[in-house]
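Re: the 59-residue chain
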Amino acid sequence: MFKQDDVVQSRTGGPKMIVLQVKGDTLFCARVDDADKKEIEVSADSVNLYHEEGDFGVC
């Protein structure tokens, strides 16, 4: 379902994360705003693919 370089977000909200590695139902992610890319282990069923809602980029 998820693959490396997908951008995900917790189903309950929170920061955007990039998937670094997938091992079964476990994702190893890092926050996109973390320059050090500290690895965070999350369950695949606790996140969704990130998408922005609304009208972005219109001035």
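The chain has a mean pLDDT of 91.
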